[in-house]
Amino acid sequence: MRHLLSAGDLSLTETTEILDLAEEMSAVQDRPLKKLPALRGRTVVNLFFEDSTRTRSSFELAGKWLSADVINVSAKGSSVSKGESLRDTVMTVAAMGVDALVIRHGASGAPWQVTQWVDAHILNAGDGTHEHPTQALLDAFTLRRHFRAHDGGDLSGRTVAIVGDVTHSRVARSNVLLLRTLGAEVVLVAPPTLMPAGVASWPVAISHDLDDVLPGVDAVMMLRVQRERMSGGYFPTPREYTIGYGLTRSRLATLRPGTPICHPGPMNRGLEISAEAADAASSLVLQQVAAGVAVRMAVLYQLLGGADELPLTRVREGV
Ligand code: CP
């Protein structure tokens, strides 16, 4: 694997390898001394044209804990704000001698386009409404860990509801692809106005009735309502949305006991998810955040050949 652009590019074997590797990295994350010399001398640039808290900081930690040099370049505060183009920006950064570029951009397909311009490994950290593959990997990691602890099983045969603003969600697209690869069934739940055109051809079930779906699922992933991508206003109104599609306190009670609740963040508390659901004992939201570092360590280790410098046996030994 040279780049990570889409969750759909990962086979079952490749996905399982990354999730298993992330388990090893998670053990490192739990140690007092987290540094591994796997990517010594390598340079990773986080190039973010859209805002981020979780993805950018976890890629930064992941690179640093693997001993890579990591720098962050954001649109705000860079020459992008003076009008420099995407091509000139990535060519400029790449000219400094970069091994990997982690890119978040508002245009779907931007990370793929960058692969045509530079030799560095390209990791998609979210492109428009298209994909967010490392989010899907960390969601799968979190749920797999939950199910293994709960009943010893994996994701295969589970039913996962993905609920909310599917139209604008790159998280939903990547999760559909990866969950299906892992053998899970997916049901998308959204108002008709927030269900994307062409969804009928996706390998999922579709519902507009959250109350009908919730009691039968093994996990529920709530999506953020992306108001910043709804320039013409949005329908339903926030109040109607919460009534029809919010994971409210009363809906929480209709889930089977212990059903895990995920949200990629940032959460709109009181809109798509209530405080009771976000903070429930069955909420995995903070486990997802923690998994983000381990999964991104695994992806960087694999793409940048970390095993050449530090074989996995030495990672396990704690170096
Ligand atoms: N889930 C996610 O991508 O969060 P950030 O926008 O904070 O990176």
UniProtKB/TrEMBL annotation:
<feature type="binding site">
    <location>
        <position position="54"/>
    </location>
    <ligand>
        <name>carbamoyl phosphate</name>
    </ligand>
</feature>
<dbReference type="InterPro" id="IPR006130">
    <property type="entry name" value="Asp/Orn_carbamoylTrfase"/>
</dbReference>
<keyword id="KW-0665">Pyrimidine biosynthesis</keyword>
<dbReference type="Pfam" id="PF02729">
    <property type="entry name" value="OTCace_N"/>
</dbReference>
<feature type="binding site">
    <location>
        <position position="170"/>
    </location>
    <ligand>
        <name>L-aspartate</name>
    </ligand>
</feature>
<feature type="binding site">
    <location>
        <position position="55"/>
    </location>
    <ligand>
        <name>carbamoyl phosphate</name>
    </ligand>
</feature>
<dbReference type="InterPro" id="IPR036901">
    <property type="entry name" value="Asp/Orn_carbamoylTrfase_sf"/>
</dbReference>
<feature type="binding site">
    <location>
        <position position="132"/>
    </location>
    <ligand>
        <name>carbamoyl phosphate</name>
    </ligand>
</feature>
<comment type="subunit">
    <text>Heterododecamer (2C3:3R2) of six catalytic PyrB chains organized as two trimers (C3), and six regulatory PyrI chains organized as three dimers (R2).</text>
</comment>
<comment type="pathway">
    <text>Pyrimidine metabolism; UMP biosynthesis via de novo pathway; (S)-dihydroorotate from bicarbonate: step 2/3.</text>
</comment>
<comment type="function">
    <text>Catalyzes the condensation of carbamoyl phosphate and aspartate to form carbamoyl aspartate and inorganic phosphate, the committed step in the de novo pyrimidine nucleotide biosynthesis pathway.</text>
</comment>
<dbReference type="Pfam" id="PF00185">
    <property type="entry name" value="OTCace"/>
</dbReference>
<dbReference type="InterPro" id="IPR006131">
    <property type="entry name" value="Asp_carbamoyltransf_Asp/Orn-bd"/>
</dbReference>
<feature type="domain" description="Aspartate/ornithine carbamoyltransferase Asp/Orn-binding">
    <location>
        <begin position="157"/>
        <end position="302"/>
    </location>
</feature>
<feature type="binding site">
    <location>
        <position position="266"/>
    </location>
    <ligand>
        <name>carbamoyl phosphate</name>
    </ligand>
</feature>
<dbReference type="InterPro" id="IPR002082">
    <property type="entry name" value="Asp_carbamoyltransf"/>
</dbReference>
<feature type="binding site">
    <location>
        <position position="265"/>
    </location>
    <ligand>
        <name>carbamoyl phosphate</name>
    </ligand>
</feature>
<feature type="binding site">
    <location>
        <position position="104"/>
    </location>
    <ligand>
        <name>carbamoyl phosphate</name>
    </ligand>
</feature>
<feature type="binding site">
    <location>
        <position position="135"/>
    </location>
    <ligand>
        <name>carbamoyl phosphate</name>
    </ligand>
</feature>
<comment type="similarity">
    <text>Belongs to the aspartate/ornithine carbamoyltransferase superfamily. ATCase family.</text>
</comment>
<dbReference type="InterPro" id="IPR006132">
    <property type="entry name" value="Asp/Orn_carbamoyltranf_P-bd"/>
</dbReference>
<keyword id="KW-0808">Transferase</keyword>
<feature type="binding site">
    <location>
        <position position="224"/>
    </location>
    <ligand>
        <name>L-aspartate</name>
    </ligand>
</feature>
<protein>
    <recommendedName>
        <fullName>Aspartate carbamoyltransferase</fullName>
        <ecNumber>2.1.3.2</ecNumber>
    </recommendedName>
</protein>
<feature type="domain" description="Aspartate/ornithine carbamoyltransferase carbamoyl-P binding">
    <location>
        <begin position="2"/>
        <end position="144"/>
    </location>
</feature>
<feature type="binding site">
    <location>
        <position position="82"/>
    </location>
    <ligand>
        <name>L-aspartate</name>
    </ligand>
</feature>
